[in-house]
Specification:
The strands form two sheets. Strands 3, 4, 5, 6, 7 and 8 form a six-stranded antiparallel β-sheet that branches. β1 and β2 form a beta hairpin. The two termini are 20 Å apart. With 154 residues, the chain is of the alpha+beta class. The radius of gyration is 16 Å and the shape is globular.
């Protein structure tokens, strides 16, 4: 789901306050995500980010699997700053995603994992546009650039 109104986020890695058009995925928590203390394992935050990113990208994916192979993205780096422990609960946690930069063959996404009371993590992921058939990087297409512009700060 795309948030109706962009909201102000101030993640430390942007170093400035900005209006960020974003995509928000209400990520359900699973009982198996929790440790003996009821905390969600912080390594699972990467999975939450992947789920949100995959759902955001879904609107851009080609229907044809062969074409999807030619327009893939590979994660090259993830950086997560953990802000607070996330205790298991029945309610989902919001994973908000936006585009930090998009040029050439590189895409960088920003994330916040939060609920109305607390931010649990802030993160960035760098991705490389990739052609799975050739096994080589590729340039981000014009259609992809247009798609990502929806989630890029002005």
């Amino acid at each position: 789901m795309v948030t109706a109104e962009p909201y102000t986020v101030q993640p430390h890695f942007l170093r400035k306050k900005s209006r960020v058009p974003s995509y928000t995925y209400p990520c359900p928590l699973r009982w198996a995500d929790a440790d003996a203390y009821g905390h969600v394992n912080n390594a699972l935050f990467l999975r939450f980010m992947e789920e949100a990113r995959t759902r955001m990208f879904h609107a851009m994916l080609a229907a044809d699997e062969a074409e999807r192979h030619q327009h893939a993205f590979d994660v090259s780096q993830s950086i997560v700053d953990y802000r607070a422990p996330l205790v298991y609960r029945n309610e989902p946690v919001d994973v908000t995603v936006w585009v930090v930069s998009c040029r050439g063959a590189r895409l960088e996404l920003g994330y916040m994992i939060q609920d109305p009371e607390r931010t649990y993590a802030e993160a960035t992921t760098k991705l490389a546009a990739y052609n799975l058939d050739t096994g080589r990087p590729r340039r981000i297409s014009e259609a992809e650039i247009e798609f990502f512009a929806r989630y890029t700060p002005a």
